[in-house]
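Box S1 | Example of a co-folding query
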Amino acid sequence: MKFCEYCGKAFDDEYDTCPNCGAKLRPLQDGEDEENALTITEMMALGLL
Ligand SMILES: [Zn+2]
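Box S1 (continued) | Returned holo structure for zinc ion
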């Protein structure tokens, strides 16, 4: 699965960009799923960006 950090949604590996917003998708890491992966908004809130 790949993940859109903007929408907080996961999509099939066949997608390179988010069908929703057009942002580049990143692969989900081990142990991550769309429920616990960080979105851009959450990373900004945590001061990671
Ligand atoms: Zn998106």
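The two ends are 23 Å apart (CA to CA). The mean pLDDT is 96.
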